Fold:
Amino acid sequence: MKQRLSICYAAPGHSLVPTSGTARNILSLAEALSAWADVTVAFRDAPDRSVRLGPGLSLETIENGDRQQGPGIDDEATRGVNPLSHLMYMRRVSDFARRTAGRFDLVLEKGWRLSGYLAHSVQTAGGAGAVIENDARCWTDSRLDPRTMLKWLLHSGAQRLAGHYSGKSLLVIAETEELRQQLHRVRHIPLEKIKVVPLGVNHSLFRPIDQESARASVGIPPHKTILLYVGGMDKYHDLWPLLDALRGVTLPELELHIVGEGEYRGRYEAAAKKTRSRVVFHGRVPHERVPLYIAAGDLCIAPYCAEAFYDHTVSFSTLKIPEYMACARPVASIPSGEIKRLIQPGVSGFLFPNSTVGWRSFLYSCPDRRTLSRMGEASRKAVENRTWEQTARGYMNAVAGCGTPILDRLRPASEWGFRTAVKE
Structure:
């Protein structure tokens, strides 16, 4: 009988914050991978040590508790403007890679500003490393003043390094075909090195729940039409057009409920005071209660800002949309990237520009609650086969296909029972 594999799934650019979408993504995948391997997750740090890991998982930190404990931060949002801090942290990542290479058969590196650096360092130390990428991190801001120009120069340097290191890794796994193409164009990673494996859904958590009981549980009126948003409030998720549309639309039966936090919350709260409909901000809620809020809604929204993405295309895997859909709720979003493959207009949701005009037109034509409920069932069926187990098998399939000697204990791809093709 073959010995089980050992895998380290490392996130050098992220803290273990249980409400973070990235942390949930990593932990869900790691738990699915544990069916075939002993899995250790490694975050930059873990401010909340009370986080419960799934069975068979263990936790390590790259910074070894040196940083001050607090609410947790994310390098994607807070690093990148201080080269010295990057250099100091790169040294710690390199030290972690040397310690890690001899303990695990495979190290998976979650993408960050210096994607590929950990995987390359692991391989330099004699191990095997692959990169899991969810964003090409393309510059979309201005360069009109010295400060933004400096940020752009640092960003560009980080992109070149990420392309260099990622190109030397075992392989790069991208969440969508759009991202695969962007990584090739922006970072010049060979297309044949990039495999596409979609993200899964935790169906044991995100599932249909009785709407009446869900509304009673979270304090939402039983007879209103509820638009629901769950997620961050940042440049990628733009609620302003909907709030602006609600200023000129009188729909007393309609309410907008927002679950989450973010840097734009203050401006959204100010805009909400000018609307003619009730807008409720619930703030950050425990992850296990999120499906209750989704169930309480009639229509879930994913108002992405296309202008915030490279080439105005949403390239990452929009995890909130399939989670909405798994809870049997239709979704309104924009016609971009993978979203166009997830949502069938008029059947499982609606696709239109995230603009004031687009939202105002939709609000006047929005179907009644009974119709939205029927559409929700179509949404559920559309994602019922999208699972984290499939994602984990896709990763194993992709790695097994690399033919690297150090991974010769991986069984042939055909033995994993994974019938969904991994795209080249």
Remarks:
- The longest strand covers residues 5-15.
- DSSP finds 15 helices and 13 strands in the chain.
